[in-house]
């Protein structure tokens, strides 16, 4: 492995990647805890759905507006790409690994929330790809939430969607506002040139 830890960082690891100590442990803990919680809630809800719902028989909750409708999806959103399940499995695996690495580098609660939600959602669906029939990275994802005639989805899909939304709000609204605030002169008024 390389030299031992000195001065706050670990020297190059096995593959030459520099590994820094976790600088923001609270953000890292939030991201990893949220990832774990999403996976747990997703898998428990899917276990319930598989045992409580009849496949392809909708159970109205709020009329036709919201139904529980158990389907097994070999593809991606809207059941696209049903013949390339392995590709989606590999993308989800890469997403989970990336989110785990990013969680160690997370510097804000905004990033911790988005990393935790996206990583947890990707991991929840990846578990289906690995362990559900037919298995071996070809498994079908359990979906059971249905709004109107929109796509049928699950807790993991919802977490990914909310995580992306949190990231977009942070990167398009919050961060630019912080940057403008830091760039403003001490007097608080910007000089406008026309």
TrEMBL record:
Pfam families: Peptidase_A8 (PF01252). It is found in: Cell membrane. One of its GO terms (biological process) is proteolysis. The keyword Transmembrane helix applies. It is an enzyme of class 3 (hydrolase). The chain crosses the membrane at residues 76-102, 109-127, 147-170. The keyword Nucleotide-binding does not apply. One of its GO terms (cellular component) is plasma membrane. Pathway: Protein modification; lipoprotein biosynthesis (signal peptide cleavage). The active site is at residues 143, 157. This protein specifically catalyzes the removal of signal peptides from prolipoproteins. PANTHER family: LIPOPROTEIN SIGNAL PEPTIDASE. Belongs to the peptidase A8 family. This is Lipoprotein signal peptidase. It comes from Corynebacterium heidelbergense.
């Amino acid at each position: 492995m390389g030299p031992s830890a000195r001065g706050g960082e670990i020297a190059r690891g096995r593959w030459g990647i520099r590994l820094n100590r976790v600088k923001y442990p609270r953000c890292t803990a939030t991201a990893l805890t949220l990832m774990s919680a999403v996976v747990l809630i997703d898998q428990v809800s899917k276990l319930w759905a598989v045992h409580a719902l009849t496949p392809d028989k909708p159970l109205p909750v709020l009329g036709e507006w919201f139904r529980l409708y158990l389907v097994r999806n070999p593809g991606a959103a809207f059941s696209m790409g049903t013949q390339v399940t392995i590709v989606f499995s590999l993308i989800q695996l890469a997403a989970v690994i990336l989110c785990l690495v990013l969680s160690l580098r997370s510097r804000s609660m905004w990033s911790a929330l988005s990393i935790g939600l996206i990583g947890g959602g990707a991991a929840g669906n990846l578990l289906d790809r690995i362990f559900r029939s037919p298995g071996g990275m070809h498994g079908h994802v359990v979906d059971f939430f249905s709004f109107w005639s929109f796509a049928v989805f699950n807790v993991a899909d919802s977490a990914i969607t909310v995580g992306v939304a949190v990231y977009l709000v942070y990167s398009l609204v919050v961060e630019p506002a912080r940057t403008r605030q830091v760039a403003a002169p001490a007097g608080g008024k910007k000089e406008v040139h026309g």
